[in-house]
Design brief:
Blueprint: E1 13-17, E2 22-25, H1 27-32, E3 37-40, H2 45-62, H3 69-77, H4 79-92, H5 149-162, E4 168-169, E5 181-182, E6 195-198, H6 203-210, H7 250-254, E7 259-266, E8 269-277, E9 295-297, H8 299-305, E10 310-312, E11 335-338, E12 342-345, E13 347-348, H9 351-361, E14 370-380, E15 387-398, H10 407-437, H11 442-469, H12 476-500, H13 504-508, H14 519-533, H15 538-547
Antiparallel strand pairs: 1-2, 1-3, 4-5, 6-14, 7-8, 9-10, 9-13, 11-12, 14-15
Length: 548
């Protein structure tokens, strides 16, 4: 009997239904019932994003691009059409979605092996199992000896997207092998960028909102549909990976075969795998073909290659997503002017955000309400060879913030961000001044400033997203004063915490004359700086007088 595990039929994608119940669905069901599915919710957020990008690649191919906005609009008006067309498309390539196919297993290379015959343990497949640190994971003991084919399929998609860099087993037939090994080519493609996705009210909307019409966006290359192919529409890969291939559009980015793999197991499940390096991809100036990342100007890369270079703006685990709004909202992006190169923007916003702007301009989606923007990424450790942190954040943007004619809202948000940083500087300064008052050295002062800033932003990081999401329909002046009042209140709370922790020596102070500093002076300087950063507006003053 032929062994098979076909992803079109077998439940393997973990989802949440609109009624809140969890479930597992096949690829065909994911598209057919997408309007009843809230979203993909598997083991970790990076796995969910890798699976969404797989669904997006299928959607691009099933919809024929889409070729233009009119084609896209037809699917938006009738999302069941997406399910029907995706189902028909998948059936044409049914055999290529069999995880255990003897000649062309999905996302794998049939018969690939190392000369030694050695295969890797399952911990190489699972991203939340740090090698050598098993006590940081729930997958310990027998859980790593075997896993079901459904879970293995999820992690296989994740491996191609987010696998860390490092030396991998050399496959027989790969000319890059030296001493039985293949040397590093970098993390999986998706791990090299900071992924951003727009979320809809159900999975169908999420898929469509991120299935961008490339020809409608100036920042994306117009892709030749028949050239931007996924692996299942091409000849099966062999053991050798490429160092020269380049992704040419969204589909190739979403399904890039960074590794060469083969799952080993039996009817009861997967027990190990061959995992080697596959096709290398570098992120320099890929903004034309990768729609799900913001991009930043890179001065070092520009000098090296003697041309303007943009690199992916990866997510920072120490900075909440809202602090990167200047790379998501066009009107907030700072300008750069470089001699001999002209003026251009410091950032390029994600193609999926540009596409939503286009939908707003065409009045295909509403200018009211909020847009959930989901950011996911992985931070790697030494030589990018280990996973050190996962980044997972959702920011609810007021839809009007992306409307090109809503300058008042953009001005309001810019002011809020600038004032937040001004107040953060005031809090940092107080933290450093209190250490100076006790006689601390420059390193201690610098460390204290940093800690004070971190403590301030820990509190602000909770409040700013809620304030941002509340802006729909609120008068800008009232919203501005509301945020400034919150900043003022939090700054004073931080002041109390810092002063309460100051040692007695700080009250005695240090220095003489103009160089003298003690707790009293530090507090006075803080109050003066805070009043300068956040002057009481007429509206706030009237509210204060009314309360009295």
């Amino acid at each position: 009997m032929t062994q098979s595990f076909n992803l079109l039929d077998e439940p393997w994608i973990r989802v949440t239904w609109l009624d809140g119940e969890p479930g597992e669905v096949s690829l065909l069901t994911a598209f057919r019932d997408a309007v009843r599915i809230s979203g993909i919710h598997g083991e970790i957020a990076s796995q969910d994003m890798a699976l969404l990008r797989l669904l997006l690649a299928i959607a691009h191919r099933a919809t024929g691009g889409p070729e233009d906005l009119d084609d896209w609009r037809a699917y938006w008006a009738n999302p069941e059409k997406l399910g029907a067309d995706a189902g028909g498309y998948l059936e044409r390539y049914r055999d290529r979605f069999d995880l255990r196919h003897p000649e062309a297993p999905f996302f794998q290379v049939a018969g690939i092996h190392a000369k030694s015959g050695k295969i890797s343990d399952l911990e190489s497949l699972i991203a939340d199992v740090p090698n050598g640190e098993p006590f940081f994971t729930t997958r310990i003991g027998p859980g790593l000896d075997r896993m079901g084919w459904a879970e293995a399929a999820r992690w296989l998609v994740h491996v191609h997207a987010f696998d860390p860099s490092g030396i991998r087993s050399g496959a027989v037939g790969d000319p890059r092998v030296k001493g039985g090994k293949v040397y590093p080519i970098g993390p999986g493609w998706t791990g090299q960028i900071g992924v951003v996705a727009v979320e809809g009210r159900n999975l169908a909307e999420t898929i469509l909102l991120n299935t961008v019409v490339t020809e409608s966006l100036a920042d994306l290359a117009e892709v030749e549909h028949e050239a931007d192919l996924p692996p299942w529409e091409k000849k099966p890969d062999g053991p050798a990976g490429s160092m020269d291939l380049e992704p040419i559009g969204p589909v190739s980015c979403y399904t890039w075969q960074t590794r060469r793999a083969l799952l080993h197991g039996d009817e009861k499940g997967v027990t190990g795998l061959f995992l080697g390096n596959g096709d290398k991809a570098t992120p320099r100036n890929r903004y034309l073909v990768e729609p799900m990342s913001a991009w930043r100007y890179s001065e070092p890369q520009t000098k090296k290659f003697k041309e303007i270079v943009f690199m992916p703006r990866k997510h920072d685990k120490d900075r909440a997503m809202w602090r990167g709004l200047s790379s998501l909202i066009p009107q907030l992006i700072p300008k750069l002017k470089i001699k001999g190169k002209g003026e251009f923007t410091r950032y390029r916003i994600p193609g999926v955000i540009s596409f939503y702007e286009k939908l707003l301009a065409q009045e295909i989606v509403s200018h009211r309400g909020v847009i959930p923007v989901h950011a996911v990424g992985i931070e790697y450790g030494a030589q990018e060879a280990v996973v050190s942190e996962h980044f997972d954040d959702v920011l609810n943007l007021p839809a009007g913030l992306l409307a090109p004619d809503n300058k008042r809202l953009v001005t309001l948000v810019r002011d809020a961000m600038e004032k937040t940083e001004e107040v953060a500087k005031v809090v940092r300064q107080l933290g450093g001044d209190l250490i100076r008052a006790r006689g601390g050295d420059p390193d201690d002062v610098s460390s204290a400033r940093e800690k004070a800033g971190v403590a301030f932003y820990l509190a602000i990081d909770e409040g700013f997203p809620r304030w941002l999401a509340s802006l729909d329909g609120i008068e800008p002046e009232a919203a501005r004063d509301d945020w400034r009042n919150r900043l003022r209140s939090e700054a004073r709370r931080q002041k109390e915490n810092l002063v309460d922790s100051a040692p007695p020596a700080a009250y005695a102070g240090r220095g003489e004359g103009r160089s003298r500093i003690d707790v009293g002076l530090a507090m006075k300087w803080f109050d003066t700086a805070l009043s300068r950063a956040l002057p009481i507006s007429i509206i706030s003053q009237q509210a204060k007088e009314k309360d009295q």
